[in-house]
Amino acid sequence: MHSATPSGVEAISRDLARNAIGLYAAYAGNILAPIVTIPYLARVLGPEAWGTLAAAQAFGFYLYGVVNYGFDWSATREVARYRVSQDNLAEIVRGMLGARLLLVAGACVSCALLQGVLPNLGSHRLLFWAAIFEALARSVTPMWYFQGLERMRTFAMVDIPTKALAIGGVFLLVQKPADAWRVPAIFGVGLLFSAVVNLTLIYREVPLLLPKLAHSLSMLRKGFGIFLLSVGGVLHTSGNAFILTLFALPRNVGYFSGAEKLVIGVTGLIVPLNQALFVRASRAVHAEPSEAPRYFRVSIALLMAMGLGISVAVFISAPWLVTLALGREFLPALPALRILACVPFLVALNNALATQGLLARGRDFPVAIALWSAAIVNFAGAAVLAGKYQHVGMSLAVVLSHLTATIILCGVFYVFRGQNSGALAQADPHRDVSGED
Fold first, then answer.
1. Is 366 within 8 Å of 412 (Cβ atoms)?
2. 373 lies in which domain range?
3. 404-429 residue pLDDT tens
4. Is position 213 within any domain?
5. Distance CA 393, CA 385 (A)
6. CB 346 within 8 A of CB 399
């Protein structure tokens, strides 16, 4: 395998920059939506209704973690590998569509059974189902296709206007605490519209093949390793407000959620760069293994520098962030925000080790072990700390869970540091992905 020439490196850098810009454009709505709406919703809803909304959306993220099945990574990797074959792309899309239908159907049945037993949510039917609708709409968005082809600008041209309209709808239609259910409902409508339009664009490029059970099950089987790590990641990062409802009053859930949403909003700046680097690393491991170590070194340097800068900025500006973004009623959230300020750096480091160092090389299960271990620490930490220290204790549990993931990922990466990519390096570029045995 020949190493990249200087002109080839320049072309790769241009492609990477283009895809990263496209990803930042696509994620602009995800990043800006909380930044723009948090000051308004915190004041209109107040800590108690805000806490109930956060718990419902946290449960929705749990559901999203299951229904999404890690396809943002596994399907992206498949599309990146077979991007030059229209037939293989059509089979991937068919398998994805069928797998989504199976997962959505199972999710709806499960939520109907769980509705009456969830603490603090069973009595808020509209809010509960609005959060479910938003989660399912988010899960069917086909960003993985455009990301694998490194054409995120196309996706962003649809996604950004719909997110902007949804933000406008929140300001227009959410006027009092009783309107909290409208927040996930409005964003869910925007996500569903974006998904339909982007699926239409996909089927203008690849043949429309009706789902078959064999293809759907094949897609689920291939993505199972990343599904495990994806669910582990969701359990220790996205459902913390729901966990806190088991130990704290809604008002304290609101304080924690306010601090967490601020941190999640700025941490979202890391996600597009990480995913752009992941696509490039996956291709390098498969097509240019001699270049893979260099891509990893560049990736970890970029991600850690960005994460450290965000963490320092959040810690220093915490008092102003709470006052300006949440209002003086949320001042008890300040200690939680100071504790959570280290999360962006830990997320950046974990992303570099997990996605660039391990997932790109097909090492899915070790990452799953790290994230599930972190999830266990998160639950245990919440049980020990949140009952006594409420939102501050939950913040400590979150940081401990991220540190757990960091320690395990460093150990796993050290073990595999000298090995080649395993399954990914051995993959046959002409392998059939139709799911037929």
1. yes
2. 12-426
3. 999 998 888 777 765 544 433 443 33
4. yes
5. 5
6. yes
